[in-house]
Amino acid sequence: MNDVDSLTPAMVSANLAAIEERIAKACQAACRDASSVRLLPVSKTVSPAGIRAAYDAGYRWFGENKVQEAQHKAQEMHDLPIDWCIIGHLQTNKARHVASFAAELHSLDSLRLAEELDRRLQALGRSMKVLVQVNTSGEAAKSGLSPEDVEPFLKALPGFSSLQVQGFRTLAMQSEYEQAVRACFRLLRDIRDKARESSSQCLSFP
Fold first, then answer.
1. Distance (Å, rounded) from C-alpha 97 to C-alpha 172?
2. Residue 158 belongs to what domain range?
């Protein structure tokens, strides 16, 4: 049994409170409103029983890496109003599965994927929130658009009306050097700011 599955709603609530306190302190130090930060529990490898305990503790959205696992859980837990968020790299041939149940995709990184998702969502009469993934570290092993490809990618996205672009996502470099990690997030912030300010974009980022 996964250790998470043995947690009671009270234990989950206590853990959540501790994490929210850390978030609040970090936001205070950064002069940021803590309410603007959303905590997304990642439930990969956690059984439906463990997720139900987290749901009872107040969680209403969960992140999953693998489409098949997420789809299975969505079907098994259809009685709960959960928003499933796909956070792993999505292959185009699995877009039809994601379109059928997921509320969010946090790894949109190609027009081919956007086109296929939009086509599937349109057929189902659904829409989906998406984050555009950018490879800010330049590492070949990481998915995402290169920084220079972001602007033309954004210009094409309004053509896919079922995709609701919420912002950006990146996976920072794995490094013991804090400055190298922070540089990835600074680059993403600059990309976000440019997209937000550009009058050529028909998009609105929070």
1. 28
2. 96-206
Query: What pTM did the predictor assign?
Result: 0.90
Residue 20: φ, ψ to 5°: -65, -35
Same domain flag for 75 and 110: no
User: Does residue 104 share a domain with residue 33?
Assistant: no
* Backbone CA torsion sign across 60, 172, 176, 45: positive
Exposure string over 32-67, b if 16+ CB within 10 A, otherwise e: eeeeeeeeebebeebeeebbbbbbebebebbbbeeb
- Tell me: do 205 and 122 sit in the same domain: yes
Answer whether 172's CB lies under 8 Å from 134's CB: no
Name the average pLDDT for the chain: 90
pLDDT at position 123, please? 97
Residue 2 has pLDDT above 60, yes or no: no
Q: Which of 89, 113, 147 is the last residue of a domain?
A: 89
